[in-house]
TrEMBL record:
InterPro entries listed in its UniProt record: Ribosomal_bS6, Ribosomal_bS6_CS, Ribosomal_bS6_sf, Ribosomal_S6_plastid/chlpt, Transl_elong_EF1B/ribsomal_bS6
Any GO BP: translation
GO CC annotation: cytoplasm; ribonucleoprotein complex; ribosome
NCBIfam families recorded: S6
Organism this protein belongs to: Brasilonema sennae CENA114
Keywords: Ribonucleoprotein, Ribosomal protein, RNA-binding, rRNA-binding
Reported function: Binds together with bS18 to 16S ribosomal RNA.
GO terms for MF: small ribosomal subunit rRNA binding; structural constituent of ribosome
Identification of the protein by name: Small ribosomal subunit protein bS6
Coiled-coil boundaries: none
Family per similarity comment: Belongs to the bacterial ribosomal protein bS6 family.
Pfam families (alphabetical): Ribosomal_S6
Length: 109
């Protein structure tokens, strides 16, 4: 069974494009060091927050999908919690069974 994770995090809106790229690369490299792979990273852009967080009304949304061992999540989330640039983060675990993956790739007749 393969475990797929999705992490959505929100960066401060005043960061430059270069700073956003550095933050994204930082978390990707941290996860790779601890065994993660199959990365899909999407920059969802700057959006209005539903409510004010730390005096911020907007945020830059980043979505990462990846696979790997579960112990890497705590390491990454600790790094995000200590970071000045991350406003919020959330990681979701999705279990994908091998049989379901095989059925999904076979076209229906």
């Amino acid at each position: 069974m393969q475990i797929v994770y999705e992490t959505m995090y929100i960066l401060r809106p005043d960061l430059t494009d270069e700073q956003v790229e550095q933050a994204t690369a930082k978390y990707e490299n941290l996860l790779r060091e601890h065994g993660a792979d199959n990365f899909e990273i999407q920059n969802r852009g700057k959006r209005r927050l539903a409510y004010e967080i730390n005096r911020q009304r907007d945020g830059i949304y980043i979505q990462m999908n990846y696979t790997g061992p579960g112990n890497m999540i705590a390491i990454m989330e600790r790094s995000m919690r200590l970071s000045e640039e991350v406003i919020r983060y959330l990681t979701i675990k999705q279990e994908v069974k091998e049989a379901q993956q095989a059925q999904a790739t076979i076209p229906a007749a």
